[in-house]
Amino acid sequence: MTKKYLVILWLCLYHYAHAQHHNFIIPDSLSTRDYNYFSKNIQYEEKDSIKERLYAYSWLTKAKREKNFAQKALAYKALIYTTNKKLQLSYADSMLTAAKRTADLELIGSAYMTKGIQHYDAKEKLEALENYMIADEYISKTTNHYLIHKIKYTIAQIKYTLEFYDDASLLFQECVKYFRKNNERAYLNSLHSLGLCYNRLGNYEACSQVNQQGLNEGLRVKNTEMQAYFLHSEGINQYFKHNYPDAIEKLTAVVAEMKKNHDFANETTAYFYIGKSYWAKKSHQKALAYLKKIDEAFQKQKYIRPDLREAYELLIEYYQQQNNKELELYYSSSLIKVDQQLHKDFKQLSGKILKEYDTKKLLQNQKNSEQYWIGVVSLMTLIIGLLGRRHFKNKRLFQELMHRIPEKVPSLVSYHSARENELDINPELIATILKNIEKFEYTKKYLEKDMTLAKLAILLNTNMKYASKIILHYRNKRTVDYINNLKIDHIIALLKNENKYRKYTNKALSDECGFGSTQNFTRAFNNRTGLSPTYFISRLRSQ
């Protein structure tokens, strides 16, 4: 026992006294061991293990001495899992350099994938994707099905991050089918990711089924490491199913496990959906405490993703209603930074995965340093230009909207006779329908909730075919656009002329003009004006 501790103490002192390990001497007890022995004694789990590091250094030294580049690459991979995070990317680079000295496509592909994982863990998603794609190019040429599905899983993760949920779910389904018989933990991971995709696709029942399958399979294979994550997924799913108490209960129960695992990403996501659940229950004070944690995570860790962005919108709207200018300004300023971070994290990745992965047009050679920096400068110039262009465009559109004279709706009956022959409808019937359309517009029946073509046809005392035909002919619009434009013009007039409406939330404005959802309202507002309602209101307030 004393001898064992002396060896460990010697290794610690040697490690700190010599940052470079090229002069490392293999201890006598390990000098006759083969490569297989070293590999078996390393668990390949991320931890700063002194004992396993001794094996990894011995493995690397033996491979260097024997000029065995394949084993050298594998030894560097072992070092990644036995050392602290600060050195992991450096070892990944060394692994790749050694692998390239071999003709082993599997090893080179695996090295690129390992480097991609290190970048992903460091939140460098663009660099991670680039390495994943190169890895895929090598591994797809091999017959190693395990590696092929492992790289599919990593690409699927990126696709999920970019909200390409259909593509990601297909890849995860392949992974579930393969890993079920080949790797228990990878199987559970794939099930968990598939469930998340189903949730994002709105297939909440399928998500619940996959989560329950994951819980059952974890017990079957006696691996409970993923149990909390399936409960976390189901908690989020229950929020979307409007079972808010159940969502709060499940997510609150797993927060401690996320903290224990130092998984701030899933911890933050749990806080967000707990907050959203309380918000949906009208418990705004309870919700605020959780929604604010999204900003805390962003300020500390720079962690954000598109769905979490809504926390800022809710906070801004809340403090607008409370007339708390200080906090409204704070969260508005933070939201600008969040949008910049999201643009950086997701837009570049989106373009790369669409143009390079999906079309399989991978770069064959790395760009030299000069080309890289030219690209960076060009990209920054483009971003600044786009932001500036958007600013001036929005400013111009606002001024045009403010000076826009309300559209005078011409009398339909006055000119229908000259055009009625173009329609295969009885002229007298056309005249009747046109009078009803004028009445519909004058009485503002279009403000009724969820006004559809079917409802409109009833009000016009005709069928849907004739209604849509006549509106298209005499208003030059599809029925949906016709109704939406009337609603939006109504709300614009209210915002221009009455201050109280400028204090309304988007949801309240949506209800005011009869839209079925806030999303439909904001989309229709943007289609009609080129602006978001939030921007339009903020400019009105500034004036």
Describe this structure in words.
- It is a single chain.
- By secondary structure, the protein is an all-alpha fold.
- Among the domains are: 1-143, Serine Threonine Protein Phosphatase 5, Tetratricopeptide repeat (Alpha Horseshoe), CATH 1.25.40; 412-542, Arc Repressor Mutant, subunit A, CATH 1.10.10.60.
- Helices cover 73% and strands 0% of the residues.
- The protein is built from 26 helices and no strands.
- The chain has helices at residues 2-17, 35-40, 50-65, 69-80, 85-100, 105-121, 125-139, 145-161, 165-179, 184-200, 204-220, 227-240, 244-260, 264-280, 284-301, 310-321, 325-357, 369-403, 412-416, 427-442, 453-459, 464-475, 479-497, 506-512, 518-529, 533-542.
- Helix 6 (105-121) packs antiparallel against helix 7 (125-139), helix 10 packs parallel to helix 12 (227-240) and helix 14 (264-280) runs antiparallel to helix 15 (284-301).
Map the helices and strands.
Elements: H1 2-17, H2 35-40, H3 50-65, H4 69-80, H5 85-100, H6 105-121, H7 125-139, H8 145-161, H9 165-179, H10 184-200, H11 204-220, H12 227-240, H13 244-260, H14 264-280, H15 284-301, H16 310-321, H17 325-357, H18 369-403, H19 412-416, H20 427-442, H21 453-459, H22 464-475, H23 479-497, H24 506-512, H25 518-529, H26 533-542
Helix pairs in contact: 3-4, 4-5, 5-6, 6-7, 7-8, 7-17, 8-9, 8-10, 9-10, 10-11, 10-12, 11-12, 12-13, 12-14, 13-14, 14-15, 15-16, 16-17, 21-22, 23-25, 24-25
